What we know:
Shape: globular
Strand content: under 5%
Largest sheet: 2 strands, antiparallel
Strand order of the largest sheet: 1-2
Number of strands: 2
Amino acid sequence: MQIPIVLLPILILLGTAAITPIIEVIARAAKAEKARDIVAIAAFAASMYSLIQLYETVMVDGPQSYVFATFGPDRGGVEIYADIYSVYFGLIFCGIGLMVAIYSLRYMEVDTGLDKYYALLLILVAGMIGVAFSADFFNLFVFWEMMCISSYTLVTFRKYRWEPVEAGFKYLIMSTLGSLLALYGISMLYGLVGNLNFSALRAYVLTQGASTDPFTLYFIMGAIIAGFGVTAAMVPLHTWLPDAHPAAPSSISAMLSGVVIKAGVYSISRGLFAIFNPSVFDYGTVLIVFGVVTITIANVMALMQRDIKRLLAYSSVVNIGYILTGLGIGGYVLAHYHKVAPEAAMSVAVFAIAGALFHLLNHAIGKGLLFLCSGCFVHEAGTRDIVELEGVGRRMLYSGTSFSIGLLALAGVPPLSGFWSKLFIILAGFSVPDDGFLKVTSIIVVLNSIFAASYYLWLLQRIMLKTPKPTVSKAVEASLSMVLPVVLLAVACVLIGIWPGGIIRIATEATKVLLGGW
């Protein structure tokens, strides 16, 4: 029996996770323990290849789906579904997972229980891809919990230290409360519709939304934003992230900031735009407010950090703010101008949301790069203190240069990748010159971008230009398996910045799918 192509990326990862403990036993007996690591890397590579094939299939033949169970004729059901929006996220999730697996080959060799580490990493990425490929809230929540439980465990992987245990417990409590809030909103939808399939929920809101209590619908939207917003690390629900990053292995920090928080963004965007018409329900304003507050507060907090991983964690919160603002501008413009000028409003909305999706990719690459580089520095110098790490980049040329590229990309320095996506979001905000709210929002985003660039450049100056401290005087370049992923990610920042057209086209197509003809 041929496995449906839409299931293949998930099954490869889950199947490999299931056999990893067996591979560990066989590898130990054969005195070839790295076999476990190689198999995990191969699984990520195979899953990535299947996602690329799925992308080509979706572009040619349209969305692919597999239905496990139906709720009746024409009512949808429990379904795995991949459109270009889903595959876009799936490629990002698996791509960063592959880089982290290669990096872990050497970085994690000092730890024990690595069969569990790789199994959890495989489950984590499978869960995120499952979230992106869910056509209903039942599947989404099952995969969501798979993702969350594995990420809690990976944060506390070095459980012999108190810091990871404390950070993991805080993450567990906050994320669980967020998941329960989202589940409450989902249960209210089920009570209204008797179905959790996105297409059925969308049809209900289109046909009977006007006769439903508006407070109920807005409460559901609020539960989706706040519930999934905990994992997305938007202010004020972000406080688990700065604690989790320093405590977790740097490879897992790259996963948390690179992709896990993006799964929260995906769930918010799909849960809102796929069901509730943005030209009728003005949740765009809420997303803009959360986005601007998130950018501003996290920027101030980042400036106060001496721990390199905490600074990068707050920087991740800042960039979630940019993404939420871009999504919010798209929704806001449709809510306020679609009836007056439908084509112009849709054009601006697509531009704004495509910018947000483009920035989501740029941040995943850039922040994954920065955390993996910081892991190289900490691995060699034995400290996370920025003052003690001064000059380490001069001792570790490949890691330091890659780190500099990542910082400049996220600072929005042209022609690197982060410049274009920030520019799109800002230009979208200024596209309606007579709207005071959007104008003020865009000005705040511009000021915050300048503010963020200042501490990125400050960190670059400390790491690359300062005279090396005694703590880093004996530091040498990390091993090839650690340097290779960071160099590849740095090259991606440069190439995407120089030739952004391909990614912009994909992000635009994904945006049109998300808006779904509204």
